[in-house]
Amino acid sequence: MFDLIIIGGGPAGVAAGVYAARKRLTTVLIAKEIGGQSSVSEGIENWIGTPMVSGTDLAKSFRTHLDAVKDQIMTLALGERVTSLVKTDGGFSVKTGGDKTFAAKAVLIATGAGRRKLTVPGADVFENKGVTYCASCDGPLFADMDVVVVGGGNAGFETAVQLLAYAKSVTLIHRHKEFKADPVTVEKVFAYPHMRVITCAEPVEVLGDKFVTGLTYTDTESDEIKKISASGIFVEAGVIPNTDFAEKLVELDPLKRIKVDPHNQRTNIEGVWAAGDCTDELYHQNNIAAGDGVKAIEDIYLWVKRQ
Ligand SMILES: Cc1cc2nc3c(=O)[nH]c(=O)nc-3n(C[C@H](O)[C@H](O)[C@H](O)COP(=O)(O)OP(=O)(O)OC[C@H]3O[C@@H](n4cnc5c(N)ncnc54)[C@H](O)[C@@H]3O)c2cc1C
C-alpha cells in the first residue's frame, strides 16, 4: 500500500508529485498524460519565472522535474485513466481502465477539467487555428483583429472584457434574449464603442481556409442565417470537470466540481484531497492549480505522519 495516490498529471498533480517525492511519501501518480490542459497552447506567458513557454515544452519540463525527484519513492502510472475510487478498510482503492488497481492511505484528485466544446461544423477543424477556449492565454495573439465570443454567461462577458483591451472589435453572441451574466458585468461591456452584442444567435458553422475567417449563425427571431467576419472565436460554453469516477465518494457542487476547504484542499471525506480545476476553486490557471497541489501535500504529509 502506498502512502498516497495522486490522480492527474497537470500542474496540480505534478506540483503535488514533486512535493510528495521530496517529503519521501511513497506515491503513485496516475495520469493519462503529463502536462494538462495547456499542453496544446502555442505560448504560455504567465507561468511564473518563464516569460514564454509552449505547452509542449511546459509538459516536458513537468516530466523532467518528476523524473529528477522520483527516485525509488514515486511510481509513475502513465497512459492510465482512473475509472473508480472507493474507500477500503485501510484507505482507498483506485481502478484504471487498463485494469490496474492501486491502494493507498490518502488520495489527491487533480484531474482537472475539459472545456465544453463548440460542436458546429468547422469548430474542431479550426481549433487552435482561430478557435480557442482561453482568452487569458490566447487573447494577445488577436491584437487589432476582429474576434467573436460565443457565450452569454459571466465567463463570456469576462472574456469580452479581456479581449476589448487589444482586439479591434469584439462581437459576443448569445443564444437567448436574456444574459446569464450579472447585469453589472454586462453594463460594463456595453460601454465599449468597439463592442457588439448579438442575442438570439445560434452558431451554425465556423468558416476559414488555413485559419478562421468568420462564423455563421441563425438569427432565431427571423430564422435568417447571418455571417460575422472574424479572425478569432473564443468559446465560453462552460467547463466539464473530470470527476465522474469520484462522484459516489466525495461531495460535488451542482457543476460536478469537488467541494474543498480552500485552507488545505480537503474534501468532505477524510483521507481524500482535491486540487486544481476539478475543484470548486474560483479561478482556473496553471499557477493556481500548482499552488493548490502544493497546499494539499503540506496537509497530506502531516496527516499521513499522524496515521
Ligand atoms: C487551451 C488552453 C490554454 C490555457 N492556457 C493557459 C495559460 O496560458 N495560463 C494559465 O495559467 N492557464 C492556462 N489554461 C488553464 C490551465 O491549463 C488550467 O487551469 C490548468 O491546466 C489546471 O490544471 P490541473 O492540474 O487542475 O488540471 P489539468 O491541466 O486539466 O490536468 C488534469 C490531468 O489529469 C489527467 N486526468 C483527467 N482525468 C483523468 C482520469 N480519469 N484518470 C487519470 N488521469 C486523468 C489529465 O490527463 C491531466 O494530466 C489554459 C487552458 C486551456 C484549455
From TrEMBL:
<protein>
    <recommendedName>
        <fullName>FAD/NAD(P)-binding domain-containing protein</fullName>
    </recommendedName>
</protein>
<keyword id="KW-0676">Redox-active center</keyword>
<dbReference type="GO" id="GO:0016668">
    <property type="term" value="F:oxidoreductase activity, acting on a sulfur group of donors, NAD(P) as acceptor"/>
</dbReference>
<feature type="domain" description="FAD/NAD(P)-binding">
    <location>
        <begin position="2"/>
        <end position="289"/>
    </location>
</feature>
<dbReference type="Pfam" id="PF07992">
    <property type="entry name" value="Pyr_redox_2"/>
</dbReference>
<keyword id="KW-0274">FAD</keyword>
<dbReference type="InterPro" id="IPR008255">
    <property type="entry name" value="Pyr_nucl-diS_OxRdtase_2_AS"/>
</dbReference>
<keyword id="KW-0285">Flavoprotein</keyword>
<dbReference type="InterPro" id="IPR023753">
    <property type="entry name" value="FAD/NAD-binding_dom"/>
</dbReference>
<keyword id="KW-0560">Oxidoreductase</keyword>
<dbReference type="InterPro" id="IPR036188">
    <property type="entry name" value="FAD/NAD-bd_sf"/>
</dbReference>
<keyword id="KW-1015">Disulfide bond</keyword>
<dbReference type="InterPro" id="IPR050097">
    <property type="entry name" value="Ferredoxin-NADP_redctase_2"/>
</dbReference>
